[in-house]
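Q: What residues go here?
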């Protein structure tokens, strides 16, 4: 299902996000598929739409994506979850 992104307590980065709707569940972590690895939960970057896996997953591709790009905010791509998190501010937004 495609749902609009809603910020409860937006930080200074929230105004810059380009992705305004998120499909939950996301299909896959493409980087894990290429590696033949697996993931626990999926996160979507709200700057470019990149889907990566969470910090409970062996490869932590969502965090790797932030470290590589500095794209600040991710949201959960799991069904029923709507939270978003800013890596720069280290809090739910
Ligand atoms: Zn922020
Ligand atoms: Zn991954
Ligand atoms: Zn991104």
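A:
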């Amino acid at each position: 299902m495609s749902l609009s992104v809603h910020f409860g307590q937006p930080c200074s980065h929230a105004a810059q996000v380009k992705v305004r709707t998120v499909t939950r569940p996301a299909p896959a972590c493409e980087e894990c598929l290429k590696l033949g690895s697996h993931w626990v939960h999926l996160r979507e970057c709200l700057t470019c739409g990149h889907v990566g896996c969470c910090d409970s997953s062996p490869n932590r591709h969502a965090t790797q994506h932030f470290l590589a790009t500095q794209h600040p905010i991710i949201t959960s791509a799991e069904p029923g979850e709507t939270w978003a998190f800013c890596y720069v501010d280290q809090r739910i937004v």
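A: Context that may help when evaluating the design: The pocket of zinc ion (ligand 1) is lined by residues 11-13, 72, 86, 88-89 (CB under 6 Å). The domain at 2-92 is CATH 3.30.40.10 (Herpes Virus-1).
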